[in-house]
Amino acid sequence: MGAAMKTILVTGATSGIGLEASVQLATQGHRVVMVGRDEQKTLRGVDEVKRRASSGSVEFLLCDFAVQASVRALAAAYRAKYDRLDVLVNNAGAVFLERGVTEDGLENTFALNHLGYFLLTNLLLDLLVKSAPARIVVVASGSHYKGTMDLENLGYEKGGFTAMGAYERSKLANVMMTRSLARRLEGKGVTANALHPGTVATGIWAVAPWWAAPVVAVLKRLFMISPQEGGQTLTYLATSPEVEGKSGLYFTRNQPKACARLAKDDALGEQLWARSAALVKL
Ligand SMILES: NC(=O)c1ccc[n+]([C@@H]2O[C@H](COP(=O)([O-])OP(=O)(O)OC[C@H]3O[C@@H](n4cnc5c(N)ncnc54)[C@H](OP(=O)(O)O)[C@@H]3O)[C@@H](O)[C@H]2O)c1
Known about the structure:
Elements: E1 7-11, H1 16-27, E2 31-36, H2 39-53, E3 58-62, H3 68-81, E4 87-90, H4 108-130, E5 134-139, H5 163-185, E6 190-196, H6 213-223, H7 227-239, E7 250-252, E8 255-256, H8 266-279
Parallel strand pairs: 1-2, 1-4, 2-3, 4-5, 5-6, 6-7
Antiparallel strand pairs: 7-8
Helix pairs in contact: 1-2, 1-7, 3-4, 4-5, 5-8
This protein binds NADP nicotinamide-adenine-dinucleotide phosphate.
């Protein structure tokens, strides 16, 4: 393997910005390990990336990030197959219109969008450190600015669930986790940065109710950027020499930007870390 060729794990690689970033990273000559949850869809994604990037170095693993046992199995499968990890791209995510719980008994949005990232990153942390210089890329969102954090009602067990509230909270948790990771990894040669990809015309909007679908279609056409453009911020943070050594930052359009005031509350960030570690039994 050439010194410049990185081994990059991309979650949520079967569609949207994860798929496009996989194409971009494979085109740059890196080995890309795409993570999907449905085998047939993932195989189609691998074929597409290989074809569009003219690359033979595209592989895959399967995981349902809403299920902790599945995340643990992914980490074990990755370790069994690969002895290094240069870049971890945490990207798999979704919006849930109704409150529901995973088989671990945790609210879907928080479990998938935050705890999925949290558990996988922690299970692969030592491999990243061993592969230093290495990077962790966290796909958060501009929605994190509106996020609230109630450690006593993280999954809206005591009520108050709204789809956007839960999504915003999970994305705020992404930025807080990124900052906590950056503190823990200081001096270890591994950076952690979060990003907003832009408002991107991807499958994430398919969750909109049927009556809103025509409006969403118009918004997508007129106001949203393409998945290719959205993928560029992931790709930039994953491999650009411009971000070498930078850590604990939140990027939009390839520029660091101030994150939410709440996200900068590092004491709260540490409480969230401890609570998350307990919820995933680390
Ligand atoms: N689109 C936007 O405007 C926007 C803005 C800000 C942030 N983001 C963030 O960008 C990330 C990617 O979203 P996207 O816009 O590219 O949406 P997308 O096209 O719907 O892609 C989401 C990806 O996550 C995967 N995924 C969903 N649930 C999963 C689960 N339980 N286990 C494993 N994988 C799962 C999907 O797999 P399947 O293909 O199997 O469904 C898909 O690969 C998300 O974290 C989202 O919050 C998006």
